[in-house]
Specification:
The protein is an all-alpha fold. The chain is built from 15 helices and no strands. 77% of the residues lie in helices and 0% in strands. Helix 2 packs antiparallel against helix 9, helix 4 runs antiparallel to helix 5 (84-94) and helix 12 packs antiparallel against helix 14.
Length: 345
């Protein structure tokens, strides 16, 4: 495969250059403006959420048959997107808060695409519809919850002893979050650019084989390889209803590129066979749920008049307000708990 790829790069240099140009254009004009500002806010939010227990953590534990400590990783995954959920799950495994089996099961439903990508990039940026983005994100989270419940039903949690660690004060560093958010956005752009070459190579081979580029099966195959280029192809070749179903399918699986990122952040310590199988199941459920919703509703997604930049600004300001309020409440509790642990020790 490497030899064939090198031959393709040497013999089809002009096509490769156009692929790189298209990947850069998608990254700079769609992904970076849509994702970077929210990566910063999401990073700050996830630092605050992962340290708390309460009624939501107990509901999470009962619903997914997971320890309460895993709730933070799930929230990180649905807020920040790939591969933050996998990274958080691996951190819990390193801290011995969850077992290896629980960590492998956690990434199957906690490593999700965030609202920034589905609503902003896919919905508003590619389809030009805020309503479509919101519906696709709701479908995405619903299918992840269904996948997580099935994961919990199929296994029995093993009883184990846990070492209680003292709670530390939150390190609230906006500069660090800005740097991390920018680096994460650039890494995503790198995967998009590289896999743009792969997808164009496959499309060229499909064209020579007589397969049309507007084939639904071919587009879904592209989503399995790299989700951003796959859903961009779906948005450009199909009507909005068909594109929504295919995009839901692609985001449900996440693609080979995200699988590589997941293997990278987990240090290749966790077995990803279960992850691939459950992600394929998640993609199938997402496709079916989106199709059912479109058939059962009479919402006009084709009108692009519902796309308003002000809506994105409202979301951004709302997240900032939630972050500020939560930080004031949470930091005081954690600091008091930290002082109490120091006095007891």
């Amino acid at each position: 495969m490497c030899t064939a790829f090198c031959v393709y790069l040497c013999t089809c240099f002009e096509i490769t250059a156009k692929s790189v140009e298209r990947g850069i254009d998608t990254g700079i004009n769609i992904l970076l403006p849509s994702l970077f500002p929210f990566f910063v806010i999401s990073d700050l939010l996830t630092k605050l959420i992962s340290s708390h227990k309460g009624i939501f953590t107990r509901i999470f534990s009962a619903l997914f048959n997971m320890p309460e400590e895993a709730f933070g990783a799930f929230v990180c995954g649905i807020i920040s997107g790939y591969p933050v959920g996998a990274s958080a799950a691996y951190s819990l495994y390193e801290q011995k808060s969850v077992s290896k089996e629980e960590a492998e099961r956690l990434i199957c439903f906690a490593n999700n695409s965030g609202p920034l990508f589905i609503i902003c990039a896919a919905g508003c940026g590619m389809l030009g519809s805020l309503k479509a983005g919101i519906i696709m994100y709701a479908v995405h989270i619903t299918s992840s919850v269904i996948t997580g419940i099935i994961c919990g039903i199929t296994v029995k949690r093993a009883a184990k002893e846990k070492t209680a660690l003292p709670s530390a004060a939150i390190r609230f560093n906006p500069a660090e979050s800005i740097e991390r958010g920018f680096i994460q956005a650039i890494k995503i752009m790198g995967f998009v650019i590289f896999f743009a070459i792969i997808t164009d190579m496959l499309l060229m081979c499909a064209g020579k084989a007589g397969i049309s580029t507007d084939s639904k099966i071919l587009t879904m195959l592209m989503c399995l390889i790299e989700v951003t280029n796959g859903i961009s192809l779906a948005a450009g070749n199909f009507d909005i209803h068909t594109a929504m179903c295919i995009i839901s399918f692609g985001c449900g699986f996440s693609g080979l590129a995200v699988l590589m990122q997941t293997a990278l952040v987990t240090g290749n310590m966790l077995c990803l066979k279960k992850y691939v199988l459950y992600k394929l199941f998640n993609a199938f459920v997402s496709f079916c749920l989106c199709k059912i919703f479109i058939l059962a509703s009479d919402i006009d997604f084709s009108a692009i008049s519902d796309f308003r930049p002000e809506a994105i600004q409202v979301i951004f300001i709302g997240l900032c307000y939630i972050l500020f309020t939560y930080y004031i409440i949470a930091s005081k509790k954690l600091v008091n708990r930290y002082k109490k642990n120091n006095r007891e020790s």
